[in-house]
Amino acid sequence: MPARILSGNAIRDQIYGELTQEIAALAREGIRPGLAAVLVGENPASQIYVRSKIAACEQLGLGSWQYTLPATISTQELLALIEELNLRNDVDGILVQLPLPAQVNAKRVLEAVDPAKDVDGFHPVNLGRLVSGRPGLVACTPAGAMEILRRSGIALEGANAVVVGRSDIVGKPMALLLMHANATVTICHSKTRDLPGVVRQADIVVAAIGRAAMVEPDWVRPGATVIDVGINRITDAAEAERIFAKFPAKLAQFREKGAVLVGDVHPGVAEIAGAITPVPGGVGPLTIAMLMSNTVKAARLRRAHAALFASPGTAPGAVAAKP
Ligand code: GUN
Q1: CA of 323 to the centre of ligand 1 (A)
Q2: Rounded to an integer, what distance in angstroms lies between the CA atom of residue 174 and that of residue 141?
Q3: Domains (ranges, CATH) in the chain?
Q4: What is the C-alpha to C-alpha distance for residues 82 and 121, in angstroms, rounded to an integer?
Q5: How remote is the CA of residue 137 from the centroid of ligand 1, in Å?
Q6: C-alpha span between 120 and 106 (Å, rounded)
Q7: pLDDT digits (tens, 9 = 90+) for 263-294
Q8: pTM of whole model > 0.90?
Q9: If you write DSSP's letter for every residue of 146-173 in order, what string do you get?
């Protein structure tokens, strides 16, 4: 029986409906959450992602600013911009689109973002909060994958979850989120012994490796839930013919356009799994929805924090500064 398709577009629309109400409530208090997106160089995929993020802000009525910088920029110049954005009160979220050029110290740049404005959840402070189960801003792609699981009613407690891929951006935070939801989590990577055998134990498989169609149908236990985080653009005809041999509509699409998208999961898995996210239209739309959600959350939390510390020296229990 073909798997239930877990549409990210439908869940994104649901989240946008909720955010619209929240944004309207903030507007009544005179608050308009705002996102600053920093794009360095001319990576075509990054350009598309940043454009989509700015468009989502505009659709929801959030403030947005795009900074497009030359690929030759230095770490110091980028740090100066981040510092300026950290200080601006109309900027609630700061996003530095990755990858950054090789001469830029990406870790230093990500650490320079104020953790209160770190809507990507990449700052070590927010990662530490996630590890220790404290509230904070969580990376958008894994947070979006969790929204799909939760809102689709997939049972997580006690489930065997296998995360394939251990990146800082997806695999590691995904494993932590599943663990906090009381799943039993295994993280696999390129050195894992008998990867198909480990994946076969899973009630929930999260594929986040970045390799086209790597998770094969015979790796997946019948009825398992499969979350496909990968987005790979296939331009090689032989590879397209191999992956989509039994999918004539996709092959026709390839022949027409010269390219086709495939996830990290082989399309044949949809015949075996109980539920699966499509590519495109699965996790992708949720990444942007969670970025919007994090921006609204950052706007609220920053103001709550500012109000708490608004009257220096007069707060109950305040300790006078030493002369
Ligand atoms: N590059 C790939 N994924 C992401 C993401 O989620 N955020 C940012 N800023 N860059 C990325």
Answers
A1: 46
A2: 8
A3: 29-115 (3.40.50.10860), 140-284 (3.40.50.720)
A4: 15
A5: 14
A6: 14
A7: 999 999 999 999 999 999 999 999 999 999 99
A8: yes
A9: HHHHHHTT---TT-EEEEE---TTTHHH
